Amino acid sequence: MHTSILLLTVLSCLHVAYAVPFWPAPKSSTNGSTTIIVDGVTFNFVTKTPSNDLTNAFERYKALTFPHPAVSAPTNAVAFCTVTVANLNVPLQLYADESYQLDISDQGIITLTSNTVYGSYRGLETLSQLIVFNFDTQLYQIANTPWSIADAPRFPHRGVLIDSSRHFEPVATLKIILESLVYAKINTMHWHIVDSQSFPFDSPSFPKLSMGAWSPQERYTVDDVAEVVEYARQRGIRVMIEIDNPGHAGAMCVGYPEICPSATCTQPLDLTNNYTFEVLGGLFNDFTGGQRGAGLAPENLFHLGGDEVDTSCWTNTPRIAQWLQQRGLTADQGYMYFVQKSQALAKAQGRDVVGWEEIWDHFGTKLDKSTIIHQWLPGSTIASNVTANGYRLLWSTDGVWYLDGLSVEWEAMYAAEPCNGVTDSACDTLVLGGEGCMWGETADTSDVLQTIWPRLGAIAERLWSPRTTTDITAASTRMSGFRCLLNQRGIAAAPVKNSVARSAPPGPGGCYDQ
Known about the structure:
Blueprint: H1 2-17, E1 28-30, E2 34-38, E3 44-47, H2 52-65, E4 80-85, E5 100-104, E6 110-114, H3 117-130, E7 131-134, E8 139-145, E9 147-151, E10 157-163, H4 171-182, E11 188-192, H5 222-233, E12 238-242, H6 252-255, H7 274-288, E13 301-303, H8 312-315, H9 318-326, H10 331-348, E14 352-356, H11 358-363, E15 372-375, H12 382-388, E16 392-395, H13 410-415, H14 424-429, E17 431-438, H15 448-452, H16 455-464, H17 472-488
Helix pairs in contact: 2-3, 4-5, 7-10
């Protein structure tokens, strides 16, 4: 008896020093002080609301939760978790319910209930972080029971932007990224699939577009995109496609030079040529519906960029300058003409349009009211203005939530607040959330994961957890534990304490100390 008490005391001390990574913090939770044993050999998930998606999730989480072989557990060890989903048929779109209730009694009864399968995914992740392998006893355990966790995200859109144009990211890499997002309850991959530098998508409608890829091997087929989207869907992750235009589109000119102002001045795209909009409309249709591309990207939000448009290509090209003059349009009004026409193409295909904040700076309330403004400029204060006028907002300030900013440490990302200057009502209804942006100029398969992680975890907690969860000191131990969890699951998350993101460890040391 004395030995058992001593062992529990030691384990308790270890638990304090190397805390279970509970990330992101839940909306509300209560717990006790009892440790229970979980049968790592026979444990299973049971449900009276079965589906293929749930079955797949159960298999994934059995592997994640029980990575080590365990010895035979006592007969009273916990052997199952009961999972109940109220509605298995809710489509994966913005505002899909991700709430869940997880209860773990000190007698070992575990129940997970949710309104949708997406809520069950989030609850399974939380449970997986609570079940810990005890290397001394070779058994799995849950400390501090009973647990009662009532959880739901603060914002419906919690994303990461992945740029596959500046450097190509193979499908295998995208899948690893998607798998990692689940661990922090990130629910959106904003796929910046093409840009000025390359066009790696094989468009069924306009196949010469992929002549703008870096190489013949650095391209995505329609089936590749469908595979990524389905892989994401099975994990409750929406894939929002971005076709940035009329700027950031110069790679389209390789295959279709006629839609660009000239060979030496390729962007913004030529607004005088109706064929420009035929190409864009066909490209949009590849993702939203139509021949071969039907349902390819069912996400209701479609990002059209619209940022960093330098209209000098238009004013310095005589035929375009003349076209503007004949219609009494300034170059900026031509910009508005293009944005509105491009948006109309996407809306005609049933999509709500997202655009970078320059379209608000230039056109404000002239934009369709369904337009979602994606804030990004450093020092920008547009959030209050956008929401005051009834428009929806995404938040991704450069220098704060840009993951390619290697000198931005996780604490600064954690301290950022998307609703500063915004009324509580507007924050609740019009600020949809935000994204960490992994721009690809210096990131490819060799370093993208350690550039994203663990800093995206700070953004994830800001977007999931209550607004009052702001104590960086209290979060730091959990952040270290979360980074170690990522590493244990095979995700190449860089050390937490780096002043420069993705730097290697400075020397020998434990995961929790670096």
